[in-house]
Structure formats: C-alpha cells, structure tokens
Amino acid sequence: MSVRYDEIGQRLRAFRLGSGMSADDIAKRIGISRTAVYRFEKGEVVKIETLSSLADLLGVSLPTLLGVEIEYISSAVTYFERLRQLEAVADRIIVLAGPISFLLASDEFRSSLRDLLRESIADNDEHKDKLLADIERIIEILEERRKNYEERRPAIVNLMSALDIERLLRSGFVGRPFVSDHDIRKRQQRAQSEVAHFARLMEEEPIGTQIGLVTGTLPHTGFQIFRSGDRKTLSVSPFRLGEQPNIKLGVAMITENEEAVSLHETVVDEMWRTALKGREAARYLRDLMASVGKNAN
C-alpha cells in the first residue's frame, strides 16, 4: 500500500482541530517546530516515529492517523473537518443525514445553526466551555464546506426521510427539551420554512442535485459516500446538525473498504428505487406541512 502523506496531513489537521490544540501546543509537546507541524499537515513526508508520537498525543491510533482500513473519530470537530476535506475533491456525494442536509439547506438554517447548537449544551455540563468552543470551530468548518460546495458544485444525491421530516415539523428546531410553548411555535414555523425550501428544490430539480423522499423506514445512523474519480469513501456518523443536534457524543467511522462501500451503495439503490422524487415528492412534503400545521392549530 502506497503512503499518501497528503491524506495523512489532512487527518492530522482534523484530529488536531478536534483536540483543541494549536500547532504550537503540538510542537512543544513532542519537541518539534510549529513550522514542522504545518508542513506535516500540508503533506510533507514524516517519520513513523513522529507519527506515532502525534497519534499518542492526539488520542488516536496510528492506523487511524494513517488511514488504514477504518478511521475512528470521536470528535464532531474532527469529523466535520474530514467531511470538508473529502468534499473538496469529491465529484459526487450521496447523503443520508436527515432530516436536513447541510449543503442543500437554506441560508436561514445556516444563520440559526449556531444558536441551535449552543442550545443543545446543558448549562450544567462540566465540559460546557470546551463544547461551546467546539461549536465555533464547527461553524467555521461548515461555512468552508458550504463555500467549497458553491464553488465546485459536485453532484449530490440526497435521501430524506418523510418520518424524520414529520417529526421535525411537529417538534420544530429545538436543541433541548422543555422549550416554552411560545418558542415551540416559532421553532415549528422555522421548520415549516426549511421544509418548504426543500420542496422548492424538489420542484426545481437544479442540475446536479437529486433529492429522494423515502416514506418508509431509513437507517437511524446517517452516512455519506464520496466519489472522487475511481475512489469511493464511506463515512458513517452519529453526529447531527439541525433537529435535536448531537455534537457531543458518538464515534464516527470513515473507510474506503470496498465491501463496506458496496453494501451501503446497495442500500442507497434500494431506497432510491422506491423514493418519491421531483414534483411528486414536493407535493408530499406540502401535504405533510399542511396536515401537521392543521393539527397544531
């Protein structure tokens, strides 16, 4: 197996961001220069002994840092940075991460996301300060992801769950339980607006964007498949944005294992075959919005 130092550098950067350590911190801890850390992150050749020290410091295994078989990621910051890196070279992305796909979400959703994520952190959480700092890093990464998407416009296949969307419409965008009735109505209105945005996308069918609405059961864990030329990469993640977000706990996985990618592609093919699409899907969403809105009143 050939060593891809550029990809090792990408993983090193992602795990460093997830750790909250600066390049200076890393350099001082393992006895190298800050410049060397940045060079490694840009893909310069690095000795295996140094990589081992970096892996120990960052709390990951050496195989994960090297990208051997499966990367295991317990930090939401690291995970979203890895997504940014994969999207930067992907020519096709398959997304099952519902009910809202960030790359296709509205500007209103993006502008309200920081507050929603902050709301998901309990006031008495012993790690509150770190989690709030993580949110700021995540927002920066997400904005880079969106900018990259708008510049490159890779093809996207987005599978959405009708059941998840119905739950979103009923609960609204909430980050924690026990939101006041007044706030709930505002959150429900915001959810209605976002679902209407996706209904318009379904009707307009922009070039390179395919959205399928699955009315049956979807896997509970979101995943994405990135294709870049002949290479395919699978990411599986418990981290969520939007409705009932989770940036605190979970272990994501990233792999190029052919069997894992193929099995997930088979799942996608089956869901896509039965999914509603285009105007039919948009009508379903609008009917769902009307039904939930009527019951709420």
From TrEMBL:
Gene3D superfamilies: lambda repressor-like DNA-binding domains (1.10.260.40). SMART domains: HTH_XRE. Pfam families: HTH_31 (PF13560). InterPro entries: CRAL-TRIO_dom, Cro/C1-type_HTH, Lambda_DNA-bd_dom_sf. One of its GO terms (molecular function) is DNA binding. Residues 12-65 form the HTH cro/C1-type domain. Residues 1-161 form the CRAL-TRIO domain. This is Helix-turn-helix transcriptional regulator. It comes from Microbaculum marinum.
